User: Fold this.
Amino acid sequence: MNLITNESLRRPEVLRWHRRIKERYTPPKGIRLTVVLPCSARKPYSKSKSHMLFQKYIRMGAKEKLALVHEVMLTSPLGLVPRELESVYPAAHYNVPVTGYWSREEKDIAVELLADYMKKAGTKLLGHVDGAYREICGELGIPLTRERILSRDSLQELEQKVSEALEEFVPQKRDKLELLRKICDFQFGIGAGEHLIPDTATVRGSQIFLGSEQVAAVNPNNGFFVLSLLGGKLLKEYGKYLVRISFKPTTNSIFCAGIDKADKEIRPGDEAIVIYEGEVVGVGKAVLNGEEMTRAKRGLGVSLRHLRKQDRELP
Assistant:
């Protein structure tokens, strides 16, 4: 996704990102220091040489207290990208021309999102940024390392300041499940992660299991979760992204004629949980948005990935 002109600030994907960062994102529990970093040309950022270097020196400074450190990236036009969301769409799917110049509107967006993050996190902050990024951090009173952030002197200062900021705190273990819940919250809404990923869940590669049964898997194309039937059942109690139908489905196509009600937050491509007589009968991808599904009298509304076995047509 090439975001070249100032009009990119008002693309639907970009505006939706801004809104979800404010409404659907909360920083991880237990963090004590947030390091503000610049974006990179390579996506996700952690695959870039610069971020590998930043993370190396942060690890050296934090040592056994690394779980207390959180990283966020300033970028235009998305404004702010927390590390755990760097692989989800559109954070890992955009390119911007690097001019070194930020318009006032770009800066205001980044300042607003960073200020919102600071209010929610309540942590110490440290900026390791150059150029216009320093102005943004300066507007919010965030302490900075010295300029030329890829120089040895600046990186060593980053290491030292991380160490000093964590001096008074005791080490903690990083909760991998909580980081996955942040993606779930961003996708479905605040609190959804607690329903989909309970403390008893386990992670195997890109898949999440409850006991021996798969709950969800990460879609490598957009970084979001795709649900299994069990995942749909767990999220049913959350009450969003539901599609209620008036017939017992026997195929993987849910047509609008049989849809009674659909969550207005559903957009084409979103995960949808199909409900019949109060039970989850299928999960899949929405073809239309929620309002269109409810209003339309014909056409495909949801394409199911999984259909409850007893609902399939017998040969």
About this structure: The first strand starts at residue 33 and ends at 38. The radius of gyration is 22 Å. The chain has two domains: 6-165, 176-311.
